[in-house]
C-alpha cells in the first residue's frame, strides 16, 4: 500500500487500522478527538473518562486557527453548525501615561476562531458517537503485556488493546510509561482566566464594539491581559456571546493564595485602562479559575503500543494557546498515520516523527513568549506599531505562530499553532 504524510487524510481504511482495538485514556477534547481519528481510520475504539459530570458545562474560551477549523469541519470532526466567534484583528492597548484612559499603540492582522470549550467538546463527543465512551470510569494504570499489547486497568477490571492513546492531561498516567519521572517545570507566574456575560459590557460600549471585530492585548509592567468574545451556550447569534479573558502575572507574595479573585482585580485596577479594569472587577462571572504556568515535553510522542496526545504529550505555556489546537492536530496526524502505515507500530512511529518535534517547538516558543510578555516586559508606554512589529519578530526568533503571521514569518507557516 502507498504511503501518505502523517496528518493527511486519504480515502479508504488503512492497513494499520484493520481490526485494530484502540483504547483512549481520557475523554476530554484530546480524548474525543483521538476517538474520532480512530473511528475514521477504521478502528474499534473505547474511551475511558474519569469524570462522571457533564463536561459540556465548562465554558472557558479557546482560539483555534481558521484554517484548522475549516479542515476539521471538512473532515467531519466538527459540525458546521458549531458556534464560533471569528475575528480578524489583534489590537494592542495599554494605560495612557498619567491617566486611566486606554492608549491603542498597535494593530495587526491576526485572524482567529474563538470557541467555547464546552461547545467544542460537545461537537467532538458527537462526532465520536461510534466509540464506547465510559463516563465516570477512571483508569488506575496502564502497561504492556508480554505479547507487546497495551493493557488498561480500571476498578472494573482490565482490557487489552493494540494501541492506547494517552489523552489524560498534564498529570497523565500514560505518560509515566513512556517518560517515568517527567515533571512540569514551573514558570514562576500564573494565569487568571474568566468568562463574563455580555451584560458586563453594557456600560462599556467602546470595549464592546472593539471586541466585536478584534481580540485585545493589554500590556502592563510585569504581565499582560487577553480579551476576546466567545459563543455562549445557546446559539451562534452576535448577542449570544461571553467575554473571555486571561491575565498573566507573578502571584502575590507569601501568605496569599494565587487564586484569590481580589488579586487579579487589584492588578487590573492598578494597571489596566479604567474601562477594562471595571470589566474584570464585575462579579457576575460565569467561570473563573487560576493556575500556575508550567511546561513539559515528553521525549517521545509515541512508543508502540502507546501514544500521547494533547497535554499528556506536552504542556506548553498558555501564550501558545496550543492545548486544544495541538490535541486536534494530534488527532489529524494519527488518522493520517493509521491510513498510511502497514501496521499499528509503523503508524505510531510516523506519529512520533511528526508530533515529537512539533511539541518541542511549541514548548520553546511558549517560553520565549513568556519571557517577552511576563518576565521581561517592554515599556509598553513607549511602544508604537513599528516597535511592536519588531518586538514580535525578535520574540518569535524564526519560529512560527499564526497569530504573528503578519510580522515576518513565512506565509502559512504558523497555520497550526496559536498563542494567547
From TrEMBL:
FAD-binding domain ranges (all copies): 24-364
Highest taxon listed in the record's lineage: Bacteria
Entry keyword Transmembrane helix: no
TM annotation in the entry: none
InterPro entries, per database record: DHP_3-monooxygenase, FAD-bd, FAD/NAD-bd_sf
Keywords, alphabetical: Monooxygenase, Oxidoreductase
Oxidoreductase keyword on record: yes
N-terminal signal peptide: none
Gene Ontology MF term list: monooxygenase activity
Entry protein name: FAD-dependent monooxygenase
Organism of origin: Streptomyces mutomycini
Amino acid at each position: 500500500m502507498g504511503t501518505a504524510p502523517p496528518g493527511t487524510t486519504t480515502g479508504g481504511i488503512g492497513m494499520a487500522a484493520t481490526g485494530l482495538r484502540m483504547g483512549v485514556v481520557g475523554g476530554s477534547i484530546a480524548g474525543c478527538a483521538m476517538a474520532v481519528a480512530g473511528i475514521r481510520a477504521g478502528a474499534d475504539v473505547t474511551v475511558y473518562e474519569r469524570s462522571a459530570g457533564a463536561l459540556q458545562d465548562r465554558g472557558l474560551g479557546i482560539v483555534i486557527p481558521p484554517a484548522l477549523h475549516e479542515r476539521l469541519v471538512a473532515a467531519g470532526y466538527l459540525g458546521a453548525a458549531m458556534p464560533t466567534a471569528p475575528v480578524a484583528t489583534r489590537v494592542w492597548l495599554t494605560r495612557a501615561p498619567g491617566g486611566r484612559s486606554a492608549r491603542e499603540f498597535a494593530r495587526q492582522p491576526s485572524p482567529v476562531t474563538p470557541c467555547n470549550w464546552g461547545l467544542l467538546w460537545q461537537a467532538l463527543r458527537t462526532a465520536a458517537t461510534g466509540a464506547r465512551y465510559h463516563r465516570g470510569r477512571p483508569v488506575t494504570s496502564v502497561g504492556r503485556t508480554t505479547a507487546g499489547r497495551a493493557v488498561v486497568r480500571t476498578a472494573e477490571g482490565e482490557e487489552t488493546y493494540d494501541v492506547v492513546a494517552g489523552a489524560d492531561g498534564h498529570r497523565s498516567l500514560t505518560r509515566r510509561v513512556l517518560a517515568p519521572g517527567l515533571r512540569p517545570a514551573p514558570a514562576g507566574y500564573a494565569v487568571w482566566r474568566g468568562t463574563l456575560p455580555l451584560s458586563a459590557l453594557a456600560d462599556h460600549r467602546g470595549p464592546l464594539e472593539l471586541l466585536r471585530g478584534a481580540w485585545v492585548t493589554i500590556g502592563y509592567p510585569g504581565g499582560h491581559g487577553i480579551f476576546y468574545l466567545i459563543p455562549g451556550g445557546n446559539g451562534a447569534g452576535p448577542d449570544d456571546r461571553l467575554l473571555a479573558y486571561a491575565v498573566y502575572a507573578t502571584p502575590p507574595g507569601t501568605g496569599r493564595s494565587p487564586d484569590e479573585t481580589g488579586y487579579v482585580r487589584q492588578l487590573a485596577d492598578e494597571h489596566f485602562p479604567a474601562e477594562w479594569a471595571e470589566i474584570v472587577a464585575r462579579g457576575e462571572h460565569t467561570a473563573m479559575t487560576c493556575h500556575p504556568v508550567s511546561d513539559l515535553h515528553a521525549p517521545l510522542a509515541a512508543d508502540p503500543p502507546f501514544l500521547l496526545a494533547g497535554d499528556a504529550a506536552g504542556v506548553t505555556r498558555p501564550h501558545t494557546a496550543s492545548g486544544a489546537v495541538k490535541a486536534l492536530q494530534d488527532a489529524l496526524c494519527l488518522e493520517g498515520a493509521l491510513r498510511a502505515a502497514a501496521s499499528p507500530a509503523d503508524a505510531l512511529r510516523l506519529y512520533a516523527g511528526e508530533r515529537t518535534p512539533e511539541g518541542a517547538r511549541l514548548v520553546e516558543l511558549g517560553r520565549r513568549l513568556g519571557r517577552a510578555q511576563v518576565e521581561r516586559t517592554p515599556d509598553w508606554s513607549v511602544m508604537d506599531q513599528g516597535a511592536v512589529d519588531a518586538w514580535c519578530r525578535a520574540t518569535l526568533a524564526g519560529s512560527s505562530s499564526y497569530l504573528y503571521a503578519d510580522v515576518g514569518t513565512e506565509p502559512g507557516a504558523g497555520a497550526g499553532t496559536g498563542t494567547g
